[in-house]
Design a protein that fits this description.
The chain is of the alpha/beta class. The chain is 35% helix and 19% strand. It is built from 9 helices and 10 strands. A 3-stranded parallel sheet has the order 1-2-3. Strands 4-5-8 form a 3-stranded antiparallel sheet. The longest helix is centred in the N-terminal third of the chain and has 16 residues. It is globular and about 55 Å long. The two termini are 14 Å apart.
């Protein structure tokens, strides 16, 4: 059974691009007699606002299309942590004690000397030392341990943009769980997609580059990888360059 989801974050107001994404999901679910899930991705606690949340509800109520199931990520933190610990136990993730900061993603992007991929010292920690330091109360971040030697291509077929691939050598060891125990976007999104059995992820093109990391999480968790369709971003009418759209998903 087809299951799709619309997952807005209450860190900004609902805009026309988000509304269009909801409509695409809703139409696809209704065409195939599937399930439309509304999920509020509200784990960015520092940036969430009630005004943004109200704008999401009010905008969707104005569309008057409805949904079949509703979830809030902030009520599912135990699930997110469970997935992170599972990946850690499988050896697909590791604890990073240097540094353990809640804003690691920003620190990584600002790293000098080229793209940041990993901290080799933390990757090389033995399980025994990692467990001992964690037991002693030292704060840490859990990171996905992206395979580098040998590197391989992470691939998926996007229903709009076609075949996509990226070498693992070019994917950083992205954070799954912050030092405060809260999940990152990547972990929370995939954990909820797995648990709610989402079959098709239809979202904006701005998430296309994230999908390689998400494929790694789905595969690492032993879950089926959903089908992906990334919608071209809405642009000014004077911009006339559009991708060649694969219509297979919509005609299926």
């Amino acid at each position: 059974m087809i299951r799709v989801r619309f997952a807005p974050s209450p860190t900004g107001y609902l805009h026309i691009g988000s509304a269009r994404t909801f409509i695409f999901n809703w139409l696809y679910a209704r065409k195939h007699k599937g399930t439309m899930v509304l999920r509020i991705d509200d784990t960015d606690f520092d940036r969430n606002t009630e005004a943004s949340l109200r704008s999401i509800y009010e905008g969707l109520e104005w569309l008057a299309l409805g949904w079949d199931e509703f979830y809030r990520q902030s009520e599912r933190l135990d699930l997110h942590r469970k997935i992170a610990l599972y990946l850690l136990e499988k050896g697909l993730a590791y604890r990073d004690f240097m540094p353990a900061l809640a804003d690691l993603d920003d620190k990584e992007r600002a790293h000098e000397g080229g793209p940041w991929l990993c901290n080799p010292e933390m990757r090389a920690l033995s399980q025994q030392e990692s467990d001992a330091r964690a037991a002693a109360g030292e704060p840490f971040v859990i990171r996905f341990k992206v395979q580098r030697e040998p590197a391989y291509e992470v691939t998926f077929n996007d229903e709009v943009f076609g075949p996509q691939s990226k070498l693992t050598a070019d994917i950083e060891d992205f954070a799954l769980l912050r030092s405060n125990g809260n999940p990152t976007y990547h972990l929370a999104s995939c954990a909820d997609d797995i648990e709610t059995k989402i079959t098709h992820i239809i979202r904006g093109q701005d998430h296309l580059s994230n999908t390689f990391k998400h494929v790694l999480i789905f595969q690492g968790a032993g879950a089926a990888v959903p089908r992906f369709a990334h919608l071209p971003l809405l642009i000014a009418p004077t911009a006339l360059s559009f991708p060649s759209v694969n219509t297979a998903l919509w005609s299926a």
